[in-house]
Automatic annotation (TrEMBL):
Coiled coil: none
Protein's UniProt name: 3-hydroxyisobutyryl-CoA hydrolase
Keyword Hydrolase in record: yes
Pathway the protein takes part in: Amino-acid degradation; L-valine degradation
Species classification: Eukaryota, Viridiplantae, Streptophyta, Embryophyta, Tracheophyta
Gene Ontology molecular function, alphabetical: 3-hydroxyisobutyryl-CoA hydrolase activity
Domain Enoyl-CoA hydratase/isomerase: 21-322
EC number: 3.1.2.4
Pfam family, one: ECH_2
Amino acid sequence: MASPAKLDKDQVLVERKSSARVLTLNRPKQLNALSFYMVSKLLEIFHDDEGNPDVKLIVLKGNGRAFCAGGDVAAVANDARGGDWRFGAIFFDTEYKMNYLMATYSKPQVSILNGIVMGGGAGASMHGRFRVVTEKTVFAMPETALGLFPDVGASYYLSRLAGFFGEYVGLTGARLDGAEMLACGLATHFVPSSKLSSLEESLCKVETSDPAIVSAIIDKYSEQPSLKKDSVYHRMDIINKCFSRKTVEDILYSLETEAMSKADSWISATVETLKKASPTSLKVFLRLIREGRLLGVGQCLVYEYRIVCHILQGHHSKDFFEVF
Ligand SMILES: CC(C)(COP(=O)(O)OP(=O)(O)OC[C@H]1O[C@@H](n2cnc3c(N)ncnc32)[C@H](O)[C@@H]1OP(=O)(O)O)[C@@H](O)C(=O)NCCC(=O)NCCSC(=O)/C=C/c1ccc(O)cc1
């Protein structure tokens, strides 16, 4: 039988293919949910490869039907029930450092998002230079339903989306597909999943860190997907109208006013989702994304870290402890 250390080691598969570092998140049964070992290992590898002139780019992907379904919520439940809040704080400290390193990295990171990308999985990919989606990609930041808030730098990268789409995505936890991610800028390329192995082969032949050259390679496999007829992207006017309001109460009031003037199941479902979420989480994230617009990624992560430590200690709300 494999020793526990060996099992941990297998959670991130590390390969060198010519000048490319290829990293595979490898907990497929848990949808590659991030353990403390995984965030520590990713931080260590990214750190080491930054100074390694033989590594020109990093490819990050997931084994199985997910890229990554977020932080390991099973482990969180153990910590939350009677554990020491500092274990959670150490997890987030390491994870946010990894997010920061990815956001400021000197070499291109190509994330292959061929499946579920949620919470911490978004943090491990959105800060990198290239985010490749497919027809199988499902993206969401589901934290407001869990008594947390969209973190891992979401107050930075969601606040950079056009209009108030970031507010919509972060507050409601709405799921986006690959075409929607490309349309709003969360993804840089759409590549059909059938072409991913050829794409990876080409990326592994790259001898440079020049993003223009890497981009041109991915372009060769890319397609322009069509948005579905019922895509939320066609609702940008109402999203901007309602989610630009100053407070969570105003956003809800504005959606409810819209619902009164037209029968639209999307509006009522959105209202219901917001009402089921943690009110504290909604307010925290709205404030964060509004302030995040004017901050750098490092400052956003520092704010998020301070807030998550309060949540772990149950200072302002116990919603997180009710869910886990
Ligand atoms: C919509 C999903 C992604 C897929 O649904 P599905 O296709 O019906 O698949 P399953 O739900 O059956 O999931 C397959 C298996 O993967 C497991 N899994 C699926 N996500 C996970 C997962 N994040 N973790 C740990 N097992 C999982 C899930 O429990 C299940 O295990 P098992 O019942 O043993 O087969 C669904 O799994 C889902 O909602 N997952 C949770 C997504 C989520 O909330 N992510 C966490 C965001 S919050 C966050 O990152 C914070 C972390 C945190 C960290 C440290 C702290 O101290 C405090 C907080």
